[in-house]
Specification:
The structure holds 2 protein chains of 2 kinds. Chain A is mainly alpha-helical. Chain A has helices at about 5-25, 35-40, 40-45, 45-55, 65-75, 80-85, 85-95, 110-125, 135-165, 170-180, 195-210, 215-220, 225-230, 250-255, 280-285, 305-325, 355-360, 395-400, 410-415, 430-435, 440-445, 480; strands at about 235-240, 260, 270, 290-295, 365-370, 380-385, 420-425, 455, 465-470, 490-495. A two-stranded antiparallel ribbon of chain A has the order 1-4. In chain A, strands 2-3 form a two-stranded antiparallel ribbon. In chain A, strand 8 (about 455) and strand 9 (about 465-470) form a beta hairpin. The N and C termini of chain A lie far apart (about 70 Å). The mean pLDDT of chain A is about 95. By secondary structure, chain B is of the alpha/beta class. Chain B contains 10 helices and 12 strands. In chain B, the strands form 2 sheets. In chain B, strands 1, 2, 3, 4, 7, 8, 9, 10, 11 and 12 form a 10-stranded mixed β-sheet that branches. A two-stranded antiparallel ribbon of chain B has the order 5-6. In chain B, strand 2, helix 3 (about 95-105) and strand 3 (about 110-115) form a beta-alpha-beta unit. In chain B, helix 2 crosses helix 3 and helix 8 (about 215-220) packs across helix 10. The longest helix of chain B has 16 residues, at about 1-15. Classes of the chains: A mainly alpha, B alpha/beta. The interface of A and B includes residues 437 and 450 of A.
């Protein structure tokens, strides 16, 4: 097969993999595809699965899927990065083709950042902390799609549809489009996510780094790249220079997307940095390189983790976890830290890989990324905000879809009995209590067969007054969601808390 | 002066109790021609298939052809207010009642029969399936439609006394025939949830209705052209409405009420729940606005016993 053919094949595989990731993202909704199918990308991720295993001390059958990628790496090096990683493919799409190599002079040890990040992530996991998984490439891409990209596309499409709907001739095609697209692809009522702009900015920033050097993230920062890089030190198939054919022109070095071909070392490359893209094969006019099985471990590079670096990472992880756990959030739960059903009792913080699958699956947009409710340690773990979305009484999607059962899978009947919070009425705000006017929306909305809100008639009140029966309340939040006031007079607080 | 005041008071009292003079004809049904030779309201009862009850009730009312003409675009608006429980819990309209109407409309030559609602608890896709209305509608040749936020439009309510405008699903206003198919339920504020209350499902923001639910429900109903109302009382929800969830609150009475006048249908449904029609605020308001009749005692009602 010619090098040009290889490039076509690789690009094909990249786009199919990205397409599959995107399709699984779309299907990650209640009523979509089976949970084990849609959360497969997360379970393929060796970094996420390893960190979760260390932090939770709970081996999960589903996590074994990651061994497939480990095996792939032991045979073909960082082929995941060059052929399969959806974030890598996105970065390849948004790369200025003219200049792939750094526009700055690359410090010798810049590439060690990813190893440092990897080591700190893994060691922190030993301390049951998974905060740094927010830097895993798959979780970055999935979260950004969930919180920023897809809702933004929905907003734009809806605006266009609404504008075009004014033209009578276009109404039938738009209706037909809507019937296909909603709710299968886009939500039928708009969903909103907190700090979408922040997520978008982070992602755009990450892509923008490509203008400093192609695949900047993959070269210098990606902790998964670091992990696969370490495995690649003993990978089987590697790039080797054919000394007899190489004339020392820099055609291959210029085209290498991770810039690992070092002319000063006779065109040798580091297998830990090589993403097996085969561009060098295409670049070389003389057949100066080949990819073949090599059995000895790769040479150490100045940026590889040294013993000192490992010790420093242990120290940094310890200090980091220590500091995070000195925050007030570690002492007392925020009253608004309502977790998905079953998650609080299940030690969510030590298991959650910050992938955002639950937020994507939640049909009402109730699950939102925590910013500070769970302290810095819990950033981007799921929190339920009833004012944004209520926990649908007929839904158990989050527990089904979570790749690591941080939110435990529950039957619908069990989930309906699981308490996540309790509702409290502020009688100084409530329309019935304070303004003596009819309302009772909260009572009407309560989904329990024996409602957790009852209406009392009082001699002092011309209208019926809602009262919460806290024994029954499960904290689903539909009462808070539907309260007609602009700040809900009935609010759900996390269990164990009372309004101060 | 005392006699003057007295007779004035007596006159006022007489008027307030409702005079025996002919009530105004309902203004809600422009597509259904008034047919004085037919019963004004039909009640079909029998421990048989709900479909049979619906067919017999419609036949006695003059047949579906009275309301649906060939080529018509029909919308059936059942109660799919929540997606929490199956139809046995009587929180949502019986799927076979809906299916029966779909079949009748298709049989009358309707071009398209759509079934839709906008649940307040849960999402439409789940609710349509869990209540089994989707399954039965499609089996009967109808279409389920998810009410897209794109198509809501402002509706002025010139007859409204409290609510003067609202935002409703545009297609309801554009359809040739709208059939209201509520289920009779207890409601903690409105006392009764039935035909007129069922119309809240086509509104997008409903919270404000509760501040004056009686008058505002009637105001809403004044702006929606309902051709036919078929009340599902196969099972009724006697308590813990409108969401239900407790089979002990469900009473199976195998009854279907049909009328071209939604106010009359709701009035009869009220009696099934042990209420007097004029005790229900929205029925009283609707009668005062001339939207329909609640005087069951003098109404031409046909009661049919179906089956064994």
């Amino acid at each position: 097969m010619t090098p040009k053919r290889w490039k076509m094949v690789r690009k094909g595989v990249q786009y199919v993999a990205l397409g599959a990731f995107f399709a699984l993202f779309i299907a990650s909704r209640r009523g979509g595809w089976a949970a084990e199918v849609v959360n497969a990308p997360m379970r393929l991720d060796p970094l996420g699965m390893l960190a979760n295993l260390l932090a939770s001390r709970t081996p999960l059958a589903g996590s074994a899927l990651a061994l497939v990628i480990v095996l792939l790496t032991l045979v073909f090096g960082r082929a995941w990065c060059g052929w399969l990683c959806p974030l890598g493919t996105v970065l390849d799409i948004f790369t200025p083709q003219r200049k792939l190599q750094p526009i700055f002079k690359e410090p010798a040890r810049l590439r060690s950042i990813k190893y440092a990040l990897l080591l700190i992530t893994v060691i922190a996991a030993l301390f049951t902390n998974l905060t740094l998984l927010i830097f895993d490439p798959l979780t970055i891409l999935f979260r950004t799609l969930t919180v920023a990209v897809w809702p933004a596309i929905d907003r734009i499409l809806s605006a266009v549809e609404t504008a075009l709907y004014n033209a009578p001739l276009l109404q039938d095609p738009i209706n037909a489009f809507d019937k296909v697209a909603r709710p299968a692809l886009l939500p039928d009522t708009p969903l909103y996510y907190r700090d979408a702009a922040l997520f978008a900015a982070f992602f755009i920033g990450l892509i923008a780094l490509n203008w400093l050097a192609a695949r900047f993230w993959c070269r210098y920062l990606c902790p998964l790249g670091g992990l696969l890089g370490l495995f690649s030190k003993v990978s089987l198939v590697r790039r080797e220079v054919v000394a007899s054919a190489c004339t020392g022109c820099d055609a291959c070095a210029r085209l290498c997307p991770t810039g690992t071909i070092q002319l000063g070392k006779n065109g040798a490359s580091d297998p830990s940095e090589c993403t097996m893209c085969l561009e060098c094969l295409r670049a070389c006019p003389r057949g100066g390189e080949t990819f073949k099985p090599v059995l000895k471990p790769a040479k150490l590079q100045p940026y590889d983790p040294s013993r000192r670096q490992v010790l420093a990472s242990i120290g940094a992880a310890a200090v980091g976890v220590g500091v995070l756990r000195s925050e007030t959030a570690a002492r007392r739960d925020d009253a608004h830290l309502i977790r998905p059903p079953g998650a609080r009792e299940n030690d969510l913080s030590a298991k959650c890989i910050r992938c955002g699958e639950c937020m994507r699956a939640c049909p009402t947009g109730a699950l939102q990324p925590a910013l500070f409710e769970a302290g810095l340690e819990g950033v981007w773990t799921p929190v339920l905000l009833p004012r944004i979305g209520y926990c649908d009484y007929s839904c158990n999607a989050c527990g089904q879809v979570c790749p690591v059962a941080a939110i435990p899978p529950q039957t619908l009947d069990d989930k309906r009995l699981t308490v996540i919070g309790k509702a409290y009425i502020n009688t100084n705000r409530c329309i019935a209590w304070a303004d003596h006017r009819d309302c009772i929306v909260c009572e009407e909305m309560c989904p329990l067969p024996e409602k957790a809100i009852t209406l009392v008639e009082s001699a002092d009140s011309p209208v019926k007054l809602p009262v919460v029966n806290r024994e029954r309340c499960i904290g689903c939040g539909i009462c808070e969601y539907k309260c007609p006031l602009n700040q809900a007079a009935i609010q759900v607080y996390a269990i164990g808390q009372s309004p101060s | 002066m005392a006699i003057g005041l007295g007779s004035g008071a007596a006159g006022w009292l007489l008027n307030a109790c409702g005079s025996p003079a002919l009530p105004p004809s309902p203004t809600l049904a422009p597509t259904a021609t008034a047919r004085p030779e037919l019963p004004y309201l039909v009640v079909a009862r029998g421990a048989t298939e709900p479909e049979e009850l619906v067919k017999r009730a419609l036949a006695a009312l003059g047949g579906i052809e009275r309301f649906v003409k060939p080529g018509h675009d029909v919308i059936i608006k059942p109660n799919i207010s929540v997606g929490y429980y199956g139809y046995q819990y009587a929180a949502t309209t019986n799927p076979w009642v809906v299916a029966a109407l779909v079949r009748l409309c298709k049989g009358a030559g309707a071009r398209r029969v759509r079934v839709m609602d906008f649940p307040f608890g849960g999402l439409a896709e789940e609710a349509y399936t869990r209540t089994d209305i989707k399954g039965q509608t499609i089996a009967a040749g109808g279409e389920m439609e998810v009410m897209s936020s794109l198509k809501f439009t402002k509706l002025e309510l010139p007859k409204g006394r409290d609510l003067r405008s609202c935002t409703v699903y545009g297609d309801i206003l554009k359809a040739d025939v709208v059939i209201d198919v509520p289920i009779a339920k207890q409601h903690s504020l409105a006392q009764l949830s039935c035909g007129m209350k069922n119309l809240m499902g086509i509104m997008i923001e409903r919270q404000a209705m509760h501040f004056n639910i009686g008058q505002r429900t009637a105001d809403l109903a004044s702006g929606i052209p309902i051709a036919l109302t078929v009340v599902d009382a196969v099972r009724i929800l006697r308590d813990n409405g409108p969401t239900g969830g407790n089979l002990n609150d469900v009473q199976k009475i195998d009854t279907i009420i049909a009328s071209a006048d939604v106010v009359a249908a709701d009035s009869y449904a009220a009696t099934l729940l042990g209420l007097r029609p004029n005790d229900v605020a929205y029925i009283k308001a609707a009668v005062a606005m001339g939207l329909g009749r609640s005087d069951l005692a003098v109404m031409k009602i046909e009661e049919i016993k179906v089956g064994g």
